[in-house]
Amino acid sequence: MPVDDPYLVRPAPGVHAYVQPDGGWCLNNAGFVSDGGRTLLVDTAATERRALALREAVAAAGVPLPRTVVNTHHHGDHTYGNSVFTPEALVLGHENARAEQLAAGHQLEMIWPGTDFGAVDITAPDLTYGDRATVHVGATEVRIVHPGVAHTTGDSVVWLPAQRVVFTGDLVFAGGTPFLAMGSLAGSLRALDLLRTLDTETVVPGHGPLTDPSAYDSTERYLRYVAQLAGDGYAKGLAPLEVARRADLGEFAAWRESERLVANVHRAYAELAGEPEGSPLDLLAVLTDMTLMNGGTPILCHA
Questions:
Q1: Contact, 236 vs 253, CB < 8 A?
Q2: Helix, strand or coil for residue 263?
Q3: Mean pLDDT of the region 226-248
Q4: C-alpha–C-alpha distance, residues 252 and 258, integer Å
Q5: What percentage of the chain has pLDDT greater than the value 70?
Q6: Is the model's pLDDT at 26 over the cut of 80?
Q7: Mean pLDDT of the residues in the chain
Q8: pLDDT at 49 exceeding the cut of 50
Q9: What share of residues in the chain are helix, strand, coil (percent, to 5)?
Q10: Is the peptide bond between 66 and the residue preceding it cis, with omega within 30 degrees of 0?
């Protein structure tokens, strides 16, 4: 199997994580829970081709195709493949995730017009919740928790308490840089506190290889580093791009998508200015600054 092929990991009986290396832009993780008679899927994929491969992986594991799909948030890499599993499956997500997905529409095609996304029918959650929801897959209890505004305004954590497995969505990027442009720095710190309250052994991040709760600590160190950088730069009247260009990433230099630092400084500046958490940023300005941070080369969708 080529090293960049998606692969399955079975962290507990009846639970599979679907990992798409290298976990960069547009290469998210998904997963599924099954008792052999029914199946729940966590997230889909960015392209029709990758969503079809995910469906094949579910079938190859010898379990039924999902009747429920849970979206951890609205971003297209986690939701564009929803239509591959509907109408047979019901899509569940936070009420804000539904609104955000409908508002975003085909945003990924606008950001990456050269990527072959295939036939993508925007398919938002059919069923929404506000704070917490529970789905029972046979004897397996799947708890779905909204952590508040964090990576986006509509995040969901999918926790399997008996199996001690959590799907964090993009609250955690294993080996990758967090991305706060559509969420909140302060809220992301609170979300980590929530994750720490869950009795978990295996962490399935939104991107990157499976990890454990130590990932919360490294993520928190990065977020506090951004907060310090932004606080100093804001006090000096520096533009986010200037702050990011001057920064010494230290232990975070090896993380993928380091250009996200400038997007995160934009978000921190908005919060320092008193803007509500999750309030929209100027996406074009953020993308332009990330391109400049990337040496003038547009960031690429790896899907």
A1: no
A2: helix
A3: 98
A4: 8
A5: 99
A6: yes
A7: 97
A8: yes
A9: 35, 20, 45
A10: no
Nearest partner of 288 among 280, 301, 298, 279, judged by Cα: 298
Tell me the average pLDDT across 47-63. Answer: 98
Q: Are strands 127-129 and 132-137 parallel, antiparallel or unpaired?
A: unpaired
Which among 22, 81, 4 is positioned nearest to 207, based on CA atoms? Answer: 22
Taking 50 as the threshold, does the pLDDT of residue 252 lie above it?
yes
Least Cα distance to 81 among 102, 51, 104 occurs for: 51
301, 113 contact by CB (below 8 A): no
Q: Among 98, 178, 186, 187, which residue's Cα sits nearest to residue 150?
A: 187
Cβ pair 171, 188 in contact under 8 A: yes
Residue 206, phi then psi, degrees to nearest 5 = -65, -30
Contacts of 127 (CB under 8 A, 6+ apart): 90, 91, 92, 93
Residue 2's pLDDT is 53
- Separation in Å, CA 170 to CA 74, 118, 127: 11, 24, 21
Q: Is the pTM of this model over 0.70?
A: yes
If residue 17 lies in a helix (H) or strand (E), which one and from where to where? strand 15-19
pLDDT in tens, 99-138: 999 999 999 999 999 999 999 999 999 999 999 999 999 9
Question: How far are the Cα atoms of 67, 152, 205 from residue 85, in angstroms, in the given order?
Answer: 8, 24, 22
Instruction: State the pLDDT confidence band at 1, using cuts at 50, 70 and 90.
Output: very low
Query: Is the peptide bond between 199 and the residue preceding it cis, with omega within 30 degrees of 0?
Result: no
Question: Which stretches within the chain are classed as H helix?
Answer: 48-60, 76-79, 82-85, 95-104, 107-111, 185-196, 214-236, 240-246, 260-272, 283-293
